[in-house]
Amino acid sequence: MPSTEVGSSMDLLTELAEWVKLETPTTDAASVNRLMDVAEAELTQAGAAITRIPGRDGFGDNLIARTEGSGQPILVSGHLDTVWSLGTLAQMPYAVNGTKAHGPGIYDMKAGSFLAFHAVRSILRQRIATPRPIVLLLTPDEEVGSPTSRWLIEREAAQAAAVLIPEPAGGGGACVTARKGVGRFVLRVEGRGAHAGTSFEDGASAIVELSHQILALHRMVDIDRGITLNAAPIWGGSRPNVISPDAGCEIDLRVSTAEDGMLMEERILSLSARTPGCRVIVEGGMNRPPYTESAAITALYGKAQVIAQQVGLPLPKQSRGGGSDGNFSAALGVPTLDGLGCPGAGAHASHEHILWQHLSARAALMAGLLETL
C-alpha cells in the first residue's frame, strides 16, 4: 500500500471544485495563469523547487515543480487549459449529482492534473521518501497541440526514467498504453469568381474543387490500418449568385504508425486541383507522433496494476485514437503511462463529468507510482 495519505474523495472534490471554478480557456493566458498561481503557491509552500517559464504567443506560463533526489526523475505532465470559453460556467455550472461531478474541464483534465498536483504536494508535506526525484510539469496549451510547451515536455521527458500522464481514465478506469499520431492541415482552394447567371462559364468554383478534395481525402481512410481523416470545418462562398473564388477546410489525420504518418503527410501535402481554373494549397503536417506500446511500457503498466490492486482499483488498459502530450514522450522511447486521471465522460461536451468517488483511489495510485518507480 502507498505510504502517502491522500485524503477522502470528498476532501479532494472540495478542493478540485475551486480549480473547476477558475475557468482556463487555452486562448486566455491570464486565466490559465491564475490557476498556475494557485498551484505554484501550494507547491512552493510544500517545499518544491519551482521554475516558471513565461508564456509566449498568447499562451499562459509553464510551471515545473521538482522534489529533491538523485538519478533520473519521474516526470508527471498535465495541462491546466480547457476547451471552454470564459463564461461557460454560467450555462454549465459546477454541480454534484449523485456519483457525478459536473463542470467545464473537470474531466479533461482538471481532475487528473489536480490529482497529480495533490499527490506531489502530499508526498512533500508528509516527507515521503521516493526512489527518484519527481518533476511535475503543468502546461497551458495542450488543447491546441502544445505549440509552446512541446519543447519543454520533450526536454524533461528525455531526462526521465518514466513519464506519467494524468489524462482522463477510460471506461472501467482504463489507463492508456498507446495512442494514434495526429496530423493537422489547412487546405485552401483558389478559384475564379464570376456571376452565376450571366458569366457562369467564366468562373471556376472553389467550392466544387473543395468537394472533390474532401471526397479524395475520405477515400484515403483505411480503418484496418488505423488511418482516418476528417475535413471540418469547411468554408466558402458568399451568395447563391456568385461562383466562389475561394473555399477551404481543416483536416484532422490520425495514424497508428510513424511510417503511415510520413506517407499520409506526403499525400496530403501533394494534393492538386482537379477543376480547371482552380489551385489547391495545403499547409500543415504531423502534430503528434504515434504513441506505441513497447515492452517497457507494458512493464510500467504491470507495476501500476500491482499498486491498483493494493488500493482496490481496477486498471484495464486501452489504446486511444486521441493524442496527448504522452505521444511526445513515448516517441522518445521513454516508458509512458497515460490515462491516470479520473474516470468519467463527456470530454469537450456539455455533459462533461467525473465519477468523483474514485478521486481518492486514483490519487493513491499516482502516489504509489511515485513512491515505487
What does this structure look like?
With 373 residues, the chain is α+β, with helices and mostly antiparallel strands. 34% of the residues lie in helices and 24% in strands. The protein has ten helices and 18 strands. The strands form five sheets. A six-stranded mixed β-sheet has the order 1-2-6-3-7-16, sandwiched between helices. A four-stranded antiparallel β-sheet has the order 4-5-18-17, covered by helices on one side. The chain has a four-stranded antiparallel β-sheet with strand order 11-13-9-14, covered by helices on one side. Helix 1 crosses helix 4 and helix 8 packs across helix 10. It is elongated and about 80 Å long.
Chain-wise SSE layout:
Layout: H1 9-20, H2 29-46, E1 49-53, E2 62-66, E3 74-79, H3 88-91, E4 95-97, E5 100-102, H4 106-125, E6 134-139, H5 150-158, E7 162-164, E8 175-179, E9 181-190, E10 194-195, H6 206-219, E11 228-236, E12 242-243, E13 246-255, H7 258-269, E14 279-288, H8 295-310, E15 317-320, H9 326-331, E16 336-337, E17 344-345, E18 353-355, H10 359-372
Parallel strand pairs: 3-6, 3-7, 7-16, 8-15
Antiparallel strand pairs: 1-2, 2-6, 4-5, 5-18, 9-13, 9-14, 10-12, 11-13, 17-18
Helix pairs in contact: 1-4, 2-4, 4-10, 8-10
Provide a brief overview of the structure.
With 373 residues, this protein is α+β, with helices and mostly antiparallel strands.
